[in-house]
Amino acid sequence: MLSIKNLRAKIDNKEILKGLNLNINPGEVHAIMGPNGSGKSTLSNILTGKKGYEIEGEVTFEKEDLLKLEPEERAHKGIFLAFQYPLEIPGVNTNIFLKTSINAIKKARGEKELDAIEFLKLIKKKSADLKFDEKILSRQLNVGFSGGEKKKNEILQMSILNPKLAILDETDSGLDIDALRVVSEGVNTLRNQNNAFLIITHYQRLLDYVIPDYVHVLKNGQIIKSGGPELAKNLEKLGYKDFN
Amino acid sequence: MESQIKLDFENFLNKEKFSSSQIQLKKNNFNEFIKKGFPNKRIEDWKFSDLNQIIQTNIKKLNFINSDIKKEDFEITTVKDFEHNKIIFLNGVILKVDFTFEENDKIIIQQNHNINEDNVENSLVSLNSAFVSNYVKFTVKKGYETKKPLIFYNYLTSDITSSALNIRIDIDLEDGSSLNVVDLSNQNLNNNFINLRQNFHIGENAILKKYFLDTGNSPNIKYIYNNLDLSKNSHLEYFILSSGSKFLKNDIICSLNNEYGSISLNGVINLDGEKHHEIKTVINHKDENCKSYQLIKCVLTDKSKGVYQGKIYVDNKAQKTDGYQLSRALLLNDQTEFNAKPELEIYADDVKCSHGSTSGNIDEDSIFYLMSRGLSYEQSKQLLVNGFLHEVLEKITDEKIKIFIKKLTGLENEY
What we know:
With 244 residues, chain A is α/β, with parallel strands linked by helices.
């Protein structure tokens, strides 16, 4: 599904990613762990099309050159990023944003757009699944949301948009135990043989709830070690220092 | 221009039948205008909007009198969104008055021929006084709360071109009365200079809500001089949507003359092309315990220019004043220009006043966030602009008018 070959990325002349390789197949959950500054967020930004990077290497998504596509085209193809710091958008009603978003994607795919009633039904179901207070959706997008609410809102968007590849950028940071459980259930409910997840995290704790198929250690712009779920547990014990 | 205007003025005086004292008053005003001419950027109040230059560039030869109206050549489209009373003006003259929804004798409308002496130091007000005739004066009687909003429809016939129209409306809200007015702008595709003067007197405990809407696209150049006097415990809500004309300056002078008066003045300047709009306000706090709030938001694209000059004056008698103003501009490209001049002049010591002004570009991180959810760049930008303007539109307290204005601006919730 996703294939990254020898990906190098620079920003302001500083090399962040230094030849990164990664393959993700449908049905897989990959976790990327790494210390601060190792390039985790850069990787998620590049996969979703954020501007400002000098990029070399090859990234294909379902055999298509991903790097050529605009951010919204990537969303239309089924890539989703749960932001580490979801942006506050004053004056924009969350429901209206969600409806605009899902219909933009449906339209691009040539599917029928949702009318107000269908949309409300979908929202009702998805927020109930995630134990997300629906009232919050009539507020301005992320404005005045608590840290946990913002992260849950990302997961709600993910579950509504039902992506093929979901990238979770430190979604677990700043979550209390209950919220962490809700977020994990959201991922587990969505997880199936046709989609894939790339979970970027500092800690092992999210991986207690969402069991990954593969764990990768990202350090200094490269994946230096890959393994199964046990790798995350070892990392937690040893710290990143001993991985060289 | 000078010989033309003098000739036009002579003809105007010959055509209209004024008393000799009125003729003298008009001549005084006329001479005052001739002395000062159209304001230019050397005048402090006009430093960001050189009207003289703007008129010269856009209108070759300006006529100061207009031929009689040909009534047959225009069509009236009225607002269907909510029930309302209407006054239809054609070339600044009343064509039709319809107060279907109100009680008889509670609203008095007079056509006024005569002007009073006043001492406004403003050449455009002098010009207005010199040329105005048959202006409207209307009164909402004591204690009468109007049941439906009133819409002013301002039409110009298509034969009006390169003309200066001097129009005046005086509104008196007697004590305890209330009125919501929507002022819909002139739509005419010719270059004209519209010089409108509006005087409002808001009596004790009276409430005026005024919505001035300049929408669409017209090459007209407009100056509006608004004078609003507030009495004890009265309230003014004033909303401006400034968007359609080539040039528009709203000059607003509000005086809180007696205690417990309050003003909420909010505006949107939303421009494209080479449009140039200004909102200039002066809020005079003359007595204790009065409040004024101002919020102006400006969205500029192409080569447009927006200006906000806001002054809060607090007299030494006006203790316990709350006076706030904030202007924010969103510049969508680097050829746009926004000028803000906030001023506070405070002579009392127990007051809460603030002013602020920000301007900036659209936030690219927010755009990326929205695009990552499948929205195009244009859609994302539009959503952010709508979000930016949302706050000021939410200040409108008449719900039906709010929905109508949101629709006009394309900010209607689809929900």
